[in-house]
Amino acid sequence: MWPLQTFLAACGWREDVTFIRLETLPIVQVPDMRNDFMADNKEFIQEETVNAAQAISKWYTVLLLRCHCLRIAFVRWRIRKLHNRIKSKWTPEHLRKLREQQRQVRIQLRIREIALYIVYLLFLNDYVLGPYTDSSLYYFNANLKRTPLLACVYSDIERPWPLVGLFMTASVKETQFNAISTIPQVHRWLQGPFFDALYSEKDPVTGDYTILQYGQVVGGISIGQLRVLPQECTSKLPPQAGSEKSGHFDESVESKLPFGTGNGSNFQWNSISEDSNISDTRRAFFTSYTGATAAVYPAPAFRVVLPHSNADETKALLASIESNAYMDVQTRAVFVDLTVFNVMLSSVLVLRFAFEVPPSGGVVPTSDSVVAPYADTSFNFLTHYSMLAVALFFVLYFLLLLRATRKEGWPVYRRLETWVQVANSVAYIVMWLLRACAGLDFPNIHVASTSPSNFRSYAFMYNVSMRLAAAVCFLSYVRLILFLDVLPHVNLIVKTVVLSVTQVSSFLFVFGLLVYAYATCYCVVFGSSVEVFSTVSHSYTSLLQSLVGDLDYAPMREAS
Q: Where is the Polycystin cation channel PKD1/PKD2 domain (predicted)?
């Protein structure tokens, strides 16, 4: 019997015409839950629990997705409603006026930025270009070098004004400074034009020797050199050619032994008490020198100091240098260093005459000079106000960049103007770091002192900082052009340049590689006969100069 029948009979159910009569069924006994088999079936319980948890998680995920979709739909409905309200309130003419007002606001803001930036440029020009308001610095440098090169040479018998011969040797053959090719000519130049240029002008009041009326030598005049050790010749040459050689200069083969024909030790490695440690001197910045032969030389040793206030002592020292064979076959470079101070310009001129003695034989003369201001540690607002103003402007623009970064985020660095500002700030910071280092290297020496001084490191470091100052000026004016992009024609040019950066860079790379290929060919063909093609770097520079027509074809015709 079915359990359902018993259950219906117990409930008093009676059969009518629609249902079939059911017999009485036994009453269903409810099982005891204490004896339920699920109580001990842990695996079944865990499986059902996992299924229930998964179902709840799925239901919750679906609910979240539906809520998110409802939120998006609500936002879109709000936006559509807002657009409809705008369309209902603003006509196209009103929208054009609104855009025009916004454009006018941007233009006014940019005009204020340009006006403030022009004020910055005025202070920058006064700070960087102030010393170049006239050509005094140029003529201070050029009158010690250019005039002797352009003037007529003279002989031992007849000598005109002294400064004309600074770059010339006093010889019967009338050899100019750039044409010096032998060691005896170097000695004649030292004892002739060089000596006359230093001691021909004398102040009748103070009795001090001057150069070009206002120039005064600071410290002693240093003559130093670099030597190499003789090496055993291992090449297969005839015995008559010699068994020793002195090759290119290198610190690994540098000679530190005393030498001299007088007593064999006339010239010592550390010959000056103030310059007793040559190694410390060489560790300073900008003490090395690159000569005309492309060789790099460290700071010289075996120095002889000439007093700038005693002409007789200097003349005797120059004569002893020649008599004791200061320059011989082991000499690879001789350097004559002096510093001239101009009180009218408050600047120093660091001048060096170099005479290289390469293994090829002969002498290769070169010279260089650097003008730097005489360091003044005192502060004067009348002369330093522009420096303070420029520094404040850089701080202001840095703070504005930080505010723009906080407001707009990283997209602000996608603009060319931002990167120009960052590069300008980096150049300005490095410029001041170099000037601080140059100030630390400034020699603590009195102007009238005759002890040796080394202004070279200070002057060259300051010169590098001036090149960074030039970069600051250039980038500042580039940024001004970017500020003027509110003008349609300027904006067109700026966008054209920006969009063509990739193509122009590719062209410059290919062009530079092609010029280098030509430079190697010219160096191989004319390297031993034409000076401008003696090395690959010289060849590269000469080929670039030939693009503007600056190339002498006569030596090439002779060599070919």
A: 386-556
